[in-house]
Design brief:
Blueprint: H1 2-13, H2 28-43, H3 51-70, H4 73-80, E1 108-112, H5 122-130, E2 134-135, E3 145-148, E4 166-167, H6 174-177, H7 179-183, E5 193-196, H8 200-209, E6 214-219, E7 226-228, E8 240-245, E9 257-260, E10 263-267, E11 272-275, E12 281-284, H9 313-321, H10 326-336, H11 342-367
Length: 378
């Protein structure tokens, strides 16, 4: 024991002296530095930036590869075959079905026309029923909407409708939709026309003054229209008219066409009219206009077998390839030929405006006979 104490004392005496000759004792900060150095040496054993760490990494990698190659495949597969549960844990949920009974009655509509269930009205039925409006018959007064395909005011008494009931025609709308009344209106955009037999004398005078003009006889059904010589015209036929034929029409790829502009009148007093500009209906004759032959009506009359936009060569690329509508396809074609399509549409809108203003007094006079002016739209 005495020897050990002497050895410890000796080691303590070997500590360096300071300037005063006293022994230097280790401080707390020097101990922390010493411990930190030991930790760094241990960490460097796994540090790839050191030689020791790199050697260890290579050794472990080689050992792992050797182990995988030496272990049989079946044993390795069974070792790695960790099966997870195949069925998901689903909490038990109980659904309580509660029936909601609505006592609110749905609005009802009925269709007036010669064939109210025909295919030409299928889209009307589909839209109304999709909106939740139920169809009813015309033998009841409990209806909300009357959709009239034919002019209804001569066959149905609608002068005392309820305030909520609506009809898709205005009284007197035939002044606009009836071909005889429309075509014989004296406007700058409508070719001269004459009612038969009432205006037979005026027509003969006009034809004599314009011997180079061609004329067609038309009726409200838009059937059997053909260019006729004056001696072939039936002047005794009622509900028909004679109209001047425009023999130099605008053509697209040689095809004559007509257009349909979607227009709605929502009020007569005050007058309120809307023109839809999203698209316009174009129908083309199935046979090229030239060489002209008056006996072939498919060259100049648009019938049920008309040529659609996508089958007109210069329009098909715009309609099918680029997804244009009928109007945009027509405008693109016209622009490609160096013409401005806006000139046409300005004239079309002006024609609609002038026509409705011309018919407004007639519509207002008939509307005054009805109890409520808000029951109608066209």
């Amino acid at each position: 024991m005495t020897d050990k104490r002497k050895e410890v004392t000796k080691k303590a005496d070997e500590r360096p002296n300071n300037e005063d000759g006293n022994k230097i004792r280790p401080t707390k900060s020097s101990s922390l530095v010493h411990n930190k150095r030991i930790e760094e040496e241990r960490a460097s054993f796994f540090d790839l930036r050191t030689t020791t760490g790199q050697i260890l990494f290579i050794t472990v990698t080689v050992a792992a590869v050797t182990l995988v190659q030496c272990v049989p495949k079946d044993a390795l597969k069974s070792l790695l075959n960790l099966q997870l549960p195949t069925q998901q844990c689903k909490p038990e949920v109980q659904f309580v079905e509660k029936k909601i009974v609505s006592h609110e009655t749905r609005p009802k509509y009925w269709v007036f026309g010669r064939n109210p269930t025909g295919g030409h009205l299928l889209h009307v039925h589909n839209v109304l029923q999709r909106l939740g409006i139920e169809q009813t018959s015309n033998d009841t007064i409990e209806w909300d909407l009357l959709w009239a395909h034919d002019y209804p005011f001569r066959k149905i008494n609608l002068q005392h409708m309820k305030r909520h009931q609506m009809v898709n025609h205005f009284p007197g709308s035939g002044y606009i939709t009836n071909k005889v009344d429309l075509s014989t209106t004296r406007l700058q955009y409508i070719p001269p026309a004459f009612k038969l037999p009432a205006e037979s004398t005026q027509f003969r005078e006009y034809a004599a003054a314009n011997p180079e003009k061609l004329f067609v006889q038309k009726n409200n059904q838009h059937r059997h229209i053909q260019i006729k010589a004056i001696e072939e015209i039936d002047f005794s036929s009622n509900d028909t008219f004679i109209q001047e034929f425009i023999d130099d029409p605008l053509l697209v790829d040689g095809y004559k066409f007509d257009i349909g502009v979607y227009t709605v009148i929502t009020s007569i007093d005050p007058l309120r009219v809307y023109i839809y500009k999203g698209d316009i209906l174009f129908r083309y004759c199935p046979v090229p206009y030239y060489p002209f032959n008056a006996s072939n009506v498919d060259k100049y009359i648009v019938g049920d077998d008309y040529l659609p936009t996508w089958e007109v060569p210069s329009l098909g690329q715009y309609y099918t390839k680029y997804g244009f509508g009928m109007k945009d396809s027509f405008d693109a074609y016209l622009t490609s030929t160096g013409r401005d399509p806006s000139t046409i549409w300005e004239q079309v809108e002006d024609a609609i405006r002038l026509l409705i203003l011309k018919k407004e007094p007639l519509l207002t006079g008939l509307l005054s006979r009805y109890a409520n002016k808000r029951n109608f739209s066209k």
